[in-house]
Design goal:
Helices cover about 85% and strands about 0% of the residues. Helix 1 packs antiparallel against helix 2. The protein is rod-shaped. The protein has a domain of about 80 residues. The protein has 2 helices and no strands. It is mainly α.
Length: about 110
């Protein structure tokens, strides 16, 4: 019915997302151009930063995709459980509703004898 490991998967994915966000934050802002360096060196430094940031953002998007898929699976399981509980509740309600009628009928039969 439900996967026990789903909660663990969501926890691990959330932890992975937090780690990626921290490493992205550690990259900081792009470095400013240094006037003493030539234009091509400044462009290389900027390109290196953008490449690292792009890589981390791609990892983050993938992790969020996995995280949302796991949450959807968990939510689906919750809805399945809710549906099962409703059916059980209906069955129990019908049993409770039928019990007093049977008890009343059996009392009447014993009085007639």
């Amino acid at each position: 019915m439900t996967n026990i490991g789903t909660g663990e998967i969501i926890y691990e994915l959330r932890k992975k997302i937090q780690e990626i966000q921290m490493s992205l934050d550690q990259l900081g802002d792009p470095s400013a151009d240094m006037p003493e360096m030539i234009q091509s060196a400044n462009l290389l430094r900027s390109n290196e930063y953008l490449s690292k940031a792009n890589e981390k953002k791609s990892e983050l998007i993938i992790a969020y995709g996995q995280y949302s898929a796991a949450l959807e699976e968990l939510l689906s399981s919750v809805f399945d459980i809710q549906k099962d509980l409703k059916e059980i509740l209906k069955e129990q309600s019908s049993l409770i509703a039928d019990s007093p009628k049977k008890a009343t009928k059996s009392k009447t039969k014993t009085k007639k004898k």
